[in-house]
Design brief:
The chain is α+β, with helices and mostly antiparallel strands and 199 residues long. Helix content is 35%, strand content 15%. The protein has six helices and four strands, in the order ααααβαββαβ. The protein has a four-stranded antiparallel β-sheet. Strand 2 and strand 3 form a beta hairpin. The radius of gyration is 65 Å and the shape is elongated.
Length: 199
């Protein structure tokens, strides 16, 4: 008995591919030509623009309204004045101005001696560089001033508080001389020194 091949038997041959039938019913094919509808619309718009510009350029400018004499405004002309001329002097209403203009002032005449006596004080000046309660402190300050090349003296005064010792320079006839010595001592560290009238 012949053997059967069950493996090959169970296989069926492959069916041939079925070609799809193209149905063109109800579908429009896209047109590959130039769109005439849009071209016509563009031509109409361009023509309308040209016609509008033609009418606008051909219109006349409206004429202005006629000018009536009432509408004319006359500007006043400036009055020419002489800039170099001064205005008239205003009238004075106050009496004291006339009195001051006519008043005479008498100035006393001073002789040269009176002028010198008026400028210079009657008392000479002194330069005080310290006031101490002890003689030793006053002597120490006097020695310090002597090292600067200036002569000083110690004035002793007694009051209710006790005895005081003042170191003074002078007398000076002119205050400027006292100020010169004051500046010299201050530069060398000797201060304070005050200028007073000599007593």
């Amino acid at each position: 008995m012949a053997t059967k091949d069950y493996v090959k038997r169970g296989r069926s041959p492959k069916p041939a591919p079925i070609k799809a039938k193209a149905s063109h019913k109800g579908k429009k094919t896209p047109s590959t030509g130039f769109p005439t509808k849009w071209a016509a619309l563009a031509v109409i718009l361009v023509c309308g623009l040209i016609v509008g510009l033609f009418f606008l350029s051909g219109t006349d400018v409206p004429e202005t309204a006629p000018v009536t004499p009432a509408a004319i405004i006359i500007k006043p002309q400036p009055v020419k004045t002489d800039t170099n001329a001064l205005p008239p002097k205003p009238e004075e209403k106050w009496r004291y101005i006339q009195e001051l203009e006519n008043k005479k002032v008498i100035v006393p005449v001073l002789t040269p001696k009176q002028v010198v006596a008026k400028d210079k004080p009657s008392k000479p000046y002194l330069l005080q560089c310290g006031a101490y309660h002890s003689q030793a402190q006053a002597d120490e300050r006097k020695a310090t001033i002597a090292f600067q090349g200036l002569n000083s003296q110690i004035k002793v005064s007694t009051n209710d508080r006790g005895t005081g010792y003042r170191v003074v320079l002078g007398p000076y006839k002119d205050k400027r001389l006292a100020m010169n010595d004051q500046n010299k001592l201050q530069k060398n560290g000797i201060s304070p020194c005050a200028i007073w009238f000599w007593q």
